Amino acid sequence: MNEGQKYCEFCGQDHKGIFYSRGSNYTVLKCSECSLLWSDPLTDDDYEKQINSDYFGEDIYLSKEKNQKERFRDQINKVLKMLEPSVEKDKIKILDIGSGLGFFLDVCDEEGIYCEGCDINEKAVQYANRNRVKTRLGTADAYYEDNSFDIIFALNLIEHIPHPKEFITQCRRILKPGGLLVLETPIQESLFHIIARAGDYLTGFKMNNYGINTNGHIYKFCGKTFEKIAGSGFEIIHKQKIGSPLKEIMGKTTYMSFKNRIVLKAVLPVAWLTARVLNLENRIFIVMKTVK
Ligand SMILES: [Zn+2]
Description:
Largest sheet: 7 strands, mixed
Number of strands: 12
Distance between the termini: 36 Å
Oligomer: single chain
Mean pLDDT: 90
Helix content: 25-40%
Radius of gyration: 19 Å
Strand content: 25-35%
Number of helices: 10
Structural class: alpha/beta
Bound molecules: zinc ion
Number of domains: 1
Strand order of the largest sheet: 7-6-5-8-9-12-11
């Protein structure tokens, strides 16, 4: 699957991507309308391998379980308060798309909230279902009925999907009127991105550290893109910057070249703290409510 993508997924054929940077075997393009960034081609041969790999078995994912669950618990409780007061707590239905190892589902169980999950990684689905079956192999597709869920969570997912517009359309269909779509994704309005842009520009586009590539994060969103997305049947009711834990960011530098890695390891801890202070952290947590 090496799909070329010359125009913006959300703004359509009239909005061709303009050059932003380059990678080893791809170009990073930017939409002149909504500023979305993406890799062209969208994916490479390793993309499918990544999706189907059994990397979930690695200790690194399980070692994050406790912190991850605490984060999910905070997020769930925050979003529940955003539902219309008429929705009764014991009737709330949540769908967790890209449910991974099922940590989010575990938290919902503990909180007594109905939740189902889905994921396209078979090994992850097996793991999530080891004690009880609440996850199916799949994504936001025809399996789910129209107007059937109160909240959809898709955390750290949308940047991986080759066609996020279709994904959003499906979410809109599955959600009940007044339902909430909750997304978390890396964002361009971050200090890391600003530093990466400066470094890349000064080196003649030889330092692409935006975290965009053809087998990981295919897209990088920004505020303008979300306004565009909201135009298709949503209103944005909550936006919040969140930072990845420093340890996690440092870990992600391993795929970079040795030279880039040395520079980053020196800069990252200072940048991480500064980003926190300036509210320029690297991800956004955004809640969109369906409108008629
Ligand atoms: Zn666009």
